[in-house]
Amino acid sequence: MAAVKRALLLSTGERYFALVSNFVTVAVVSRILTPAEIGVSVIGMAFVGIAMSAREFASANFLIQRQHLTRADVRGAFTVMLLFTSIITIALASSAPLLAGAYGDERLTPYLRVIAAAFFLELVAAPIITLLRRDMAFGKIAAINTSGAVAAAAVTISLAMLGFSYMSFAWAWVASAVVTGLLAVGLSRQFWIFRPSLVGWRGMVAFGGYNGATSLLYKTYEALPYLLLGRILSLDAAALYSRGLMICQLPDKVILGGAISVILPAFSAEARQGRSLKQPYLNALGLITALQWPALLVLAALAYPIVDLLLGDQWHGVVPIVQIVAIASLFSFSFELNYPVLVSIGAVHDIFRRALIVCPVSVVIITAAAFFGLRAVAFSLLLVIPFQAFVSLTFVRRHMVIGWLEIWSAVWRSAVVAAITISGPLAVVIYIGSGFEISLVKALSAAALAAAGWLLGLWLTGHALLTEFCEGLPISGAAGWWRQGS
């Protein structure tokens, strides 16, 4: 328990620093570059996201979940990762002109080639950080990732101001990869990791086969809206959709923070000791929804002032996207837990089967929606996300013998808290009478009412999260799901 709490403290601090750094960068750069310029980066990153998923065929998570780990396992894993990464890097760099031609924009060629170099350089830090995660050495991980975030932010903003346009994002990734790689090697000094060896490669490939196929399916699904919008509509549309999703991901990033990187190692450690993950999973659902659901509803109500504050007035087209996606995201409450819990209990095959079900259906729905415009793609998520949630929970329920009523019992208080929380902001919007386009000052008043309503909701429902807050923030609340399930 103490190890989990300390890990959460360190990881939460690092994640929040990276979050603040990222959004300062976005806020500054969004006022320097146009949506069309950022659209080049969005399309490029969509292709790179698919390429990165292919690297999961040699997934570093193999090292985390393995019961007994030897040096031969680590060296074999690095060698397999090196081979896969080299092939992917060469393929991405060589296909850059072809991909740029498909979009009629030659700016994609240099962007993809620089990103390919950064992609390869990341290989240096990857196995070291994975071993540190397995050992829950989150102090060193925080130092490495924080340094990388600072480098990325500084280079992105500096180059954007100097006129490097969309290439500022690419060169920033290179800078971040170099900094994290050097620091990881310097802190660990485990140079033996980089000695090629094929001993134990079969185990990693067997694990990575299903893991990589799953990642490829999901990353293709995630990249598809950007690629379709950029091809059918414009790069501007892809940029608007990207920024809309980014803002809607704020609640998850703020709420879960460092917990995301701790969940898999912690679940895996419990599973290795033969303990049940059912109660920790249900407790986590209750705590997450008490934070996520109210935040998403408030985000939908205050989308206009939030977009204006974060991105500037040239991005007002993002507002309806944020509102639609925020409502759809209410159904994603279990997403951050499902993957680590299934990996921890050795159900990698089911993760792949789940992807085979949800990804093709989701792709068909989004592809059809893309021909009707940007908002249609956003509305399609009102079908896609609930469908994915139902399938994912079905697989988790089967392995941990959880009933639907047990899930409802874990989250119903959160639903009441969310309803009470949003009542204040909605009252402000109705009172003003000008729709959701309210000023920042009025938005602050609405946010204050939301905070008061949230605390009132926790008290009225006797929510477990209130106990966690009383015991001490932020780590007690983050770790409570673990303690209650022990």
From TrEMBL:
Protein name (Swiss-Prot/TrEMBL): Oligosaccharide flippase family protein
UniProt-listed InterPro entries: Poly_Biosynth_Transport
Domain of life of the organism encoding this protein: Bacteria
PANTHER family: LIPOPOLYSACCHARIDE BIOSYNTHESIS PROTEIN WZXC (PTHR30250:SF10), PST FAMILY PREDICTED COLANIC ACID TRANSPORTER (PTHR30250)
Family: Belongs to the polysaccharide synthase family.
Annotated GO CC locations: plasma membrane
Intracellular or extracellular location(s): Cell membrane
Record keyword Transmembrane helix present: yes
Entry keywords, A to Z: Cell membrane, Membrane, Transmembrane, Transmembrane helix
Record membrane topology: Multi-pass membrane protein
Transmembrane segments: 16-34, 40-64, 76-99, 111-132, 144-164, 170-187, 199-218, 281-306, 318-339, 351-372, 378-398, 410-432, 444-466
